[in-house]
Amino acid sequence: MNHHYETDVIVVGGGPVGLTLAHELGARGVRCVLVESREAPDSGSPRCKQVNPRSMEIFRRLGVAGDIRAASGLPFGWADSAVFATSLTGYRIERFDQIFALSDVPATELAEPAQWCAQNRLEEALRGTLKRRTGVTPLWGATLTGLEQDDDGVTAAATGPDGEELRIRGRYLAGADGSRSTVRRLLGSTLSGRSHEIQNLQTTFRAPGLGAAHPHGRAVQYWIVNDRVNGLMGPLDTAGTWWAIILGAPAEPSPDWLRDALTTMIGTAHSVEVLACDPWTARMLVADDYRAGRCFLLGDAAHLNPPWGGFGANTGIGDAADLGWKLAAVVAGWGGPGLLDSYQTERRPMAVRTIAEAERNMRVLTGELAHPDLDDDGPAGEHARAGAATAIRRAKTAELYTLGFVLGARYRGSPLIVDDDGPAPDSTTEHYRPSAAPGARLPHLWLGPGRSLYDALGPGFTLIELGTPAGPGWETAARERGLPLTRLSLHRPDLPGLFGAEQLLVRPDQHVAWRGHAEQADPAALLDRVRGAAPGELPPQHTEHGGS
User: Which of 6, 301, 322, 394 has the highest CB neighbour number within 10 Å of its CB?
Assistant: First the structure.
């Protein structure tokens, strides 16, 4: 039996990135069909575990942040530490607290702290909430087999879970189908970069009581430093399910080897039931092209980076937020001819930046920190552990404190951004400095108890006014272009200094597109610029399926 679907956007891949894109499109009134070969999330070996603050802000905007926290096996705020030790039950070498912005203590600069959440649980939350998006049709168990595109759209062929043939016609197609992307292969897209030569292994295992059997307290990561087996491990839930990454593992480890390796990492015999194994090597690769006609790549289909720092899936979630609002704008009719091309212009440099940061973190891993005296009970051991602690602080601080890297990302050189010479403080990897420079994430602040500035932004563009309100020219220009515009007045004496201007034009993804003063603004020209159109280029005056 053949089944035929007509839609606006075909999303291939139902991992965290594809699911985020489906939510983004569905929330904006865009019809999409989601093609995912797995009928249920993989529970075996979740590679993604950290959902960083920027991703959680995106999920807050989509109304699913609370669902993700509820689905996590570790409660919000359960731990925000990393421990370096000779084994899980051995000597502690160093401890880092308040890492990865995981603390549940409210902070001015964050609308949402990070959440430690295994990838399968993240997917379960995003799948479960997808039913809120009436325009999204998920096809679980469907495998893409081919695609063709023409001037008007894309036709995808797929096989359903019972072998039935599926034909899906859409205006655009987005490939979020992972590192072995079928979409990328069918488009003939290439990846540039290199792979690391060392073979690693991630395993998940059940070890009831292990959390209470060691002396180091709660943490999300325990880095194991010894000269026999090294890597890192941590809990996935409070019920005794753990993960471990073993560095330099055999390509096909035997059950005896794996059991001995886990015993060495734990430091004592403990009952362990291995649930899954996932061999991997670090890859530093990025697609040469993120777009081919009406087809786009995002997530691991577009870039692959080492896990050090926890940037991988979060970078893909950022891809989905960027591409989502732009596709919605074009479907709605107000996006200009250059809007979709800006996806690669903005997101590919973010992938390159992320890969470089992860590769820096990879230079020193636990094997480089090992010393034969680390487990010694006497002065030699104390000396060795003190030296290792110094080296760990020097090498790993920037990997564990990443708020500046995560929130300080800025779209530089984008044709949609109106740059200026106003204040533009730069963040370091470890330290975030709020900046409202064009291209930057809008600095966050709380408008009241539990009420974020981001909650007050509109679904489209938002004009934030700190002083004298601008005239009606903004609404007139927006109406002529069919562009959704919200006006937001804020009256706080500290904000002109923080934002560097009396007016800010904020994009649907919470990045600043322009800042300035009322007398300097040409609303029509600005709105054309930020929607990817030439000055005075008006869109057709109709909307097919909504989209904001």
Answer: 301
Average pLDDT over residues 72-92: 97
State which H helix or E strand residue 266 sits in.
Answer: helix 255-266
Residue 350 Cα to chain centre, angstroms: 11
Q: Which helix (H) or strand (E) holds 284?
A: strand 283-287
DSSP β-bridge partners for residue 203: 244, 277
Position 541 scores a pLDDT of: 63
Cα 403 off chain centre by: 13
Contact 224, 370 (CB under 8 A): no
Q: Is 214 helix (H, G, I), strand (E, B) or coil?
A: coil
How many C-beta neighbours within 10 Å does residue 57 have?
Answer: 24
Size of the chain, expressed as the number of residues it contains:
548
Cβ proximity of 362 and 61 under 8 Å: no
**Which residues are CB-neighbours of 151 under 8 A, at least 6 positions away?**
none
Q: Six-digit token pair at 211?
A: 């959390």
| Nearest alpha carbon to residue 346 among 112, 535, 530, 533 | 530
Tens-place pLDDT, residues 435-473: 999 999 999 999 999 999 999 999 999 999 998 888 899
Residues 6+ apart with CB under 8 A from 301: 13, 175, 176, 177, 178, 179, 181, 183, 184, 287
Give tens-digit pLDDT for 247-287.
999 988 999 999 999 999 999 999 999 999 999 999 999 99
Token couple for 206: 């059940």
CB 322 within 8 Å of CB 58: no
SS3 of the chain: helix, strand, coil, percent, to 5: 30, 25, 45
Both tokens assigned to 394: 């020097």
Closest CA to 50 of 315, 297, 266: 315
- For residue 456, give Cα distances in angstroms to 112, 214, 376, 462, 508: 15, 46, 58, 9, 12
The pTM score is 0.96
Task: Using pLDDT thresholds of 50, 70 and 90, give the confidence band for residue 546.
Answer: very low
List, in sequence order, the alpha helices (H) in 98-236. 119-129, 182-187
